[in-house]
Amino acid sequence: MKNMVRMRLISLAEGVSWLVLLFIAMPLKYMAGYPIAVTYAGMAHGILFMVLMAIVTVVWLSKRISFGFAVKVMVAALFPFGAFVIDKSIKARIEEQALTQRA
User: Fold this and answer.
1) What would the pLDDT profile of 59-70 be if each residue is shown by its tens digit?
2) What's the CA gap between 92 and 98, in Å, rounded?
């Protein structure tokens, strides 16, 4: 269950970094001539994206989620607000597993 919680947190952090890159760093680069913002925001986003892909794979291989759900999480990460859309499903699965463990 710890990996599921980590997956959710990393997914949200990756989603925030994606929005920062698109709506803060890119305008700073193209409108204000400040390209270093994209360098740092892009690097942070790239690292978080790779970590998310790794943790989703670990959670899937440990049989906590199905292959289909793992793909959904990975595809959601490709879209700017995808992490926030899929978060409700991730949270529901975490709560479901918590209830299963208590029983």
Assistant:
1) 999 998 999 999
2) 10
